[in-house]
C-alpha cells in the first residue's frame, strides 16, 4: 500500500512516501518564509523518485489537516485533493498536532502539549497523554499568559513546537520542559494514517476542508500616498 503523505500546516514543507507503515522517502525543509507554494510539488517529485515509484503507483493520499498556517493548509489540501481526483484514490486526514508528539511518547512525560505559533501570544494546542498518545483535550486556539497551564504544576510535561519559545518566556511551571525545534512532519503522519486506513476512515474528497480553526486574517496594505 503506497501512500503519499503531505504536511504543509507550518514553516515545515514536508512530504513522505510510505509502503504501509514503512517510510520509503522523506523530503522536507523548514523555512521562515513558508515556501509551500514553491517547494511542495518539487518535494513530491523528489520523494517519488527516492521511493522509486510513480504517481500511478500510489494507493492513497494522507494530509496533515491543520490547524496551522491558513495559506499552507490551502496549498496542501488543494494538492492532495487534486491527486485524489486525478488518480481516483482515497484521502485520509490527520490532525497536524498529532504529528508532533511521536518522538516524545513513552519518555516519562505525563503530558505532551504541542504549541503551533499563531499571532502575537496565541497558539494552537491540544494535550496528549505521554504514554498512549491519546488526545485528552480538544484542539483550541489559546492566548498565553503567565497562568496558562498552571493546573499542570507538579506534572512532568513538555511543550513542543515553534509556539514553545514564547511559552517558555512567560509560563510559570517549574516541572515543564520545552522544545521549539519540532514542527509537524509528514513522516509522523504514517502511523495514524495506517490506523485510519485499516478502519476505512476516508474523507469525502469533494467536500473536504482543512481544519483552519480560525477564519483567515489578512494584512491590509497601506494606500500609497
Can I get a quick summary?
The chain is an alpha/beta fold and 225 residues long. The protein contains four helices and eleven strands, in the order βββαβαββββββαβα.
Count of helical stretches = 4
From the N-terminal CA to the C-terminal CA, the straight-line distance is 58 Å
| Beta fraction | 25-35%
| CATH architecture classification name of the largest domain | 2-Layer Sandwich
| Coarse structural class | alpha/beta
What percent of the residues sit in helical stretches (DSSP H or I)? 10-25%
Coarse shape: globular
Unreliable stretches, pLDDT < 50, 5 or more residues? 216-225
Mean pLDDT: 93
CATH-defined topology of the largest domain? Nucleotidyltransferase, domain 5
In the CATH hierarchy, what is the superfamily of the largest domain? Answer: ATPase, nucleotide binding domain
Query: How many structural units, i.e. domains?
Result: 2
Strand count, sense and barrel status of the largest sheet are: 6 strands, mixed
Amino acid at each position: 500500500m503506497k501512500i503519499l503523505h503531505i504536511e504543509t500546516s507550518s514553516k515545515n514543507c514536508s512530504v513522505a512516501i510510505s509502503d504501509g507503515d514503512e517510510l520509503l522517502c522523506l523530503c522536507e525543509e523548514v523555512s521562515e518564509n513558508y515556501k509551500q507554494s514553491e517547494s511542495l510539488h518539487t518535494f513530491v517529485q523528489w520523494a517519488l523518485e527516492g521511493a522509486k515509484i510513480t504517481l500511478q503507483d500510489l494507493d492513497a493520499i494522507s494530509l496533515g489537516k491543520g490547524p496551522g498556517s491558513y495559506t499552507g493548509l490551502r496549498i496542501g489540501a488543494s494538492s492532495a485533493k487534486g491527486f485524489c481526483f486525478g488518480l481516483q484514490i482515497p484521502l485520509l486526514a490527520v490532525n497536524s498536532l498529532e504529528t508532533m508528539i511521536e518522538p516524545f511518547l513513552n519518555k516519562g512525560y505525563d503530558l505532551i502539549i504541542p504549541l503551533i505559533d499563531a499571532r502575537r501570544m496565541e497558539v494552537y494546542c491540544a494535550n496528549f497523554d505521554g504514554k498512549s498518545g491519546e488526545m485528552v483535550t480538544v484542539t483550541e486556539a489559546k492566548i498565553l499568559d503567565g497562568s496558562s497551564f498552571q493546573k499542570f504544576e507538579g506534572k512532568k510535561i513538555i511543550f513542543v513546537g515553534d509556539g514553545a519559545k514564547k511559552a517558555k518566556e512567560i509560563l510559570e511551571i517549574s516541572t515543564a520542559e520545552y522544545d521549539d525545534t519540532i514542527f509537524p512532519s509528514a513522516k509522523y503522519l504514517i502511523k495514524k494514517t495506517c490506523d485510519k486506513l485499516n478502519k476505512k476512515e476516508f474523507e469525502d474528497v469533494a467536500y473536504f476542508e482543512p481544519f483552519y480553526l480560525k477564519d483567515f486574517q489578512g494584512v491590509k496594505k497601506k494606500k500609497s500616498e
